Predict the structure.
Amino acid sequence: MRARIRGYLPEDFSGTEYQSSSDNFHCSELPVFDCEVRDARPDLDSLSPQQMLERSGFTLLTGSRVNETHPDFRDLAFADAYAAVHSLFPEQRFELFANPQYITVRRSGEGEVVPCLHSDYSLSAQEYWRTLACFTSAANADDWKRDFARPDVRSYRVFNVWRILQSDYDDFMPLGLIRRSSVQPEDIVLGREDLPGSPDGQASTFLRLRHKPNHDWVYFPRMQDHEMIVFQSFALEKGGDSPAWPGCFHAAIDNSSSTFTKPSRVSCEYRIGVYLSD
Ligand SMILES: [Fe+2]
C-alpha cells in the first residue's frame, strides 16, 4: 500500500544531529514522504521467525489471545511478551530484564500513536539508566545498572513487543517498520530529546533517518489478537569505541485515506531487555 510517512530528514540534510522545533512524537515541521509499504507476511514463507529477526530486525511471533476487556490483560500480555523474547535465545546464556507494570497502551483513534519516524537509542549505559529512571522508576533503573555491571554480562539488547488487544478493529495508522538491511549507517542522524525529571540533568537521544527511496518499508496487515511483532530496539556492548547499536526504525504510518467503519485499534507494547553473558 501507499502511506504517508513523517519524520524523515531531507536526503541532503548535512548535520550530524537534529532537534525538532515542534515535538519529537509528531515533528510536524518535517516533510511527509509518500512511500510504498509492503506486506511482511510473505517473508515468513521462506524464513523462520528467528531468521527474520536476524535479517530484518523484526519478526512475528504468536502467543495466547489477549483482549483489553480481560481484567488481567496486562499480565497476560506480559507473560506472552516474556515468553516470546525468551524463545529467541535458545542457545545462549541470557537473562531477561522486564517488569509487567511498565506497559504502554495506545489508542489509535485518540491520537496516541507516534507518527514521527525514529529508532530508540541510548548513547551509553549512563544514558539508558537515565531514560529508564524517567520512563519507569529510579529503582528499576538502578536494578538495571547493577545487573549490567556484573562481570559476566557482556552486552544488553532491548526488544519492543507490540500487539493488538482486540479481535475486530480498523487498522488506522498501523505500525510500519524499515527492514534493517536497507538502512545504511550514513542515513542515520542523532536526535536530541529533553528529558524532564532527568536524574542527572542530562538529555537523552534517539535516532532519525535521512530519506532514501530504497528504504524497505513493511507492515503486518490483519494483525490478530494472539500475534506479536517483536522488533529490536537498541543494543549496548560493554567497552569499545561504539558501544551502542541502532535499533529498528519505525513509525505509525498514515493510511487515513482508507475508509474505516470498525472500532479504532488498541495496541500495547512491552520492552523486554536481554543481558547476554559469555
Ligand atoms: Fe517507538
